[in-house]
Amino acid sequence: MIGGGIAGLTTAYLLSSQGRSVVLIEALDALGGGETGRTTAHFMPPDDRYFEIEKSFGADGARMVARSFQAATDLVEEIARREAPECEFERLEGYLYCLPGQDPQDLQRELESALRAGVAVERLPQAPGLAFDTGPCIRFAHQAQFHPLRYLAGLARACVRQGVRLHCGTRAVDIQGTAEVQVVTTLRGQIRARAVVVATNTPFNDRVVMHTKQSGYRTYVVGMEVPRGAVPRILLWDTGEPYYYVRLASAAADSATDTLIVGGKDHKVGQDSRPERRWDDIERWVRERFPMAGDVTHRWSGQVMEPADPVAFFGRNPNDEGDVFIITGDSGTGMTHCTAGAMAVSDMIMGRANPWADLYDPARKMTHGLGEFVKEQANTLAQYKDLVTGGDVDDVDHIRPGEGAVVRRGVSKLAIYRDDASMLHVRSAICTHLGCVVAWNASEKSWDCPCHASRFSIEGEVLHGPAGSPLPEAKLDVPPD
């Protein structure tokens, strides 16, 4: 198992509970250190709407998605009760409402498609208990939320009890194998296994194929204090593009406040020069609708992988020989998709049929999302123009302490960060995945690839794939053009 988030640990838990010998490796120093630790942990309907899924995959496909979401949420509830009672799992009602100026018929289309898919939904004149009028909305029954890292801690304890060997700080860099055995090469040695599951948000072992089928987006979250009881315990999201999503988290039992968690303002990775402004936009949106909101207590961002058609990818990795599986394409509903993926992949490894495996097959053609596929590929190709343009600044003296910029030196492009002591940290600006020029992310102090969503630290280390190797160290002694 490669990846110590929800997908990897859930798969390890399911397989080890059935007697399989499991080793799980995580590149970072702690489990949940990747995107699982950044999720807002909503269990809600598909990000891309049931009517879009029905249009692409038919009514049967939409029903299968609904069943997989329900089964995944039920499994998390069962695991939470048994292994992680402290994770605050709770069932909630979710409400989807239409923004002013958007087509209200989208709500009706979603209602009708969800009903055909067997989802418990109803149309209401407005979401209840809020300080603002949402207008007509759809109520989705039996949704959920939890504390993701407390859940992950319970999963990890159960995995260890069932014999899973966990190794953090162990980055996988390659997978080679046959129909009988896979060899995973890590920076600490090799592991031989009958089957390998790559659960790293986006697969590092596939250089091209899967990265043409999905795109990485950054999403932004703000936590704000609200008086306890002032906001109903519901899930809320709108029909915007991108949309806002809202949930409530409770503080200690004796606290007078709750935390209102609001996310949104998504954009493609590496394609916003000032992403920190998006937190300000979210805060402004909250204060306009929740006038009781107090201080901002939290700000963070995360990364989601958007498939070109409306459903995720889990199953055998295309073009690999033998049992190499991937779980990716979370599309903003990672807790549900990752759990459904773990269930499907576990069934495949155990030799059982899984009812939704064909629908989510990573090898499927992008005929259903062809328009989105073409648009995303055009966007990606356009980023390569940065190879021949100038840098962000003409001279390194223009880089302020705590900031980074791409600088051209001769035929090279350099990613240069100036720390608070005014020391320069210089790396190649060429992404080690497929050669795109990285961009500075001021909100995360990272170098982000606008082509396929790899991310690197100021020292060049990989923070997020598909890149498998760091940005090489570089020197400034090349004269400028």
Instruction: Tally the helices.
Output: 7
Described by strand count, sense and barrel closure, the largest sheet is: 9 strands, mixed
Q: What would you call the shape?
A: globular
Structural class per helix/strand content? Answer: alpha+beta
What amount of the residues lies in strands? Answer: 25-35%
Unreliable runs, pLDDT <50, ≥5 residues?
A: none
Rg on CA atoms, Å: 22 Å
Number of strands: 24
Helix content: 10-25%
Distance between the termini: 47 Å
Give the mean pLDDT. 93
Notes on the structure:
With 481 residues, this protein is an alpha+beta fold. It has 7 helices and 24 strands. The strands form 6 sheets. Strands 2, 3, 4, 5, 11, 12, 13, 14 and 15 form a 9-stranded mixed beta sheet that branches. Strands 21-22-23-24 form a 4-stranded antiparallel beta sheet, with no helix packed on it. Strand 23 (455-456) and strand 24 (462-464) form a beta hairpin. Helix 1 (6-16) runs parallel beside helix 6 (334-349), helix 2 (50-83) crosses helix 3 (105-116) and helix 2 (50-83) packs across helix 6. It is globular, with a radius of gyration of 22 Å. The N and C termini lie far apart (47 Å). The model has no long low-confidence stretch (mean pLDDT 93).
